[in-house]
Amino acid sequence: MNRPPGGGAPEGRTTVVTGGAPDCRTTVVLITHDRRDELLRTLTCLRRLPERPRVIVTDNASSDGTAEAVARHFPEATLLCPGRNLGAVGRNLAVRHVRTPYVAFCDDDSWWEAGSLRRAADLLDARPRLAGVTARIVVQPEGVEDPVVRELRESPLSGPGWLPGPALGSFLAAATVLRTDAFRAGGGFHPGLWLGGEEELLACDLLRQGWWLAYAEELTVHHQASRQRDSTARRVLGIRNTLWFTWLRRPLLPALRRTGHLMRTVPRDAASARAFARATAGLPWVLRLRDPVPPELEHRLAALERARRTSPARRYVG
Known about the structure:
This protein is α/β, with parallel strands linked by helices. The protein is built from 12 helices and 9 strands. Strands 1, 2, 3, 4, 5, 6, 7, 8 and 9 form a 9-stranded mixed beta sheet that branches.
C-alpha cells in the first residue's frame, strides 16, 4: 500500500508545528513491526517538526493493525507494505522512494528533536565527503543520555579537522542522518544480516569508499524503548551479526582474536549458544563473500574494538 505525501491532521487531532520554515532536504525513514502504539507516537512527534519532512514507513508485516492505523491517522506519510518482515532491508525499500539529498533514520520508538534535521542537513551541505552524522540520544521518559552517547563522544578515531565532531567507525540507524547517495553507493543494509547491528557492515563499506562518519553533539534524538522489545532475541541477532561482520571484513588474525574474545565474554547460556550456532550455519555464505579491509581501515576497526570492550553500552545482556 502506497500513500503519497499530502493530507491533513486526522479527525480529533491538532497538528502542532513549532516555528520555522519547512526544510525539504531530508526524508525520514523508519521500519516497524507490531508496534502500533509506539509508531503512532513517533509519527505524531515527527508531524510536529518545524522541518515538516516527508516520512516513509515500511511496515514489516505487522499483525496488530499498524498499517491500517497509519493510513487512517497519517495519510500524509508514505506507507510501504512488502507483505513480509524484511528487517533492516525494509529501510532499503523505503530509500528507493527517497528524492531528497539526505535520509534521516529513526526507529518506531524514537523521534528527532525540533531543529535537528535542519542542522544535520546544514552540516552535510557544508561537507561533501561526510556521509552521515549521528545525534545525541536522550532516553525518555527519564530525560537522561543513553550510555552509548559517551562512547560516541569519546570515539578513539581521528579524522580531518572539518568534521563537525568525533570521527565514528559506525552509526546508529535510530539516530543518524545519512547522505542518500552514500547510502546507495554503500549498498544499503545487507540482507544477510537482516536485523541487529546491521549498521556496522554498511559503515565499514562507506569508510572503505572514502566517506566519513561523525558524531554531532548539537543534534538530538529521543528514545523511549518499546515494551514489545525482546531483549534475548536481540542479543542472539547481535552476537550472530557481530561474528558475521567480523568474518566478512576483518583480516584473518583479527577475526580469530575477536571471535575468541566473544566466546570468552558473552554470557554462557542458551541464547549465546544459539547465536554461535546460527553464526556457524551462515559461514558458507559469509566466507564466500569475505572481503577483508585494507590495513589502514583495519587499524581503525581495531581501535574501535578495544574501546568498545569497556563500554557499558556494548554488554551482551538479556
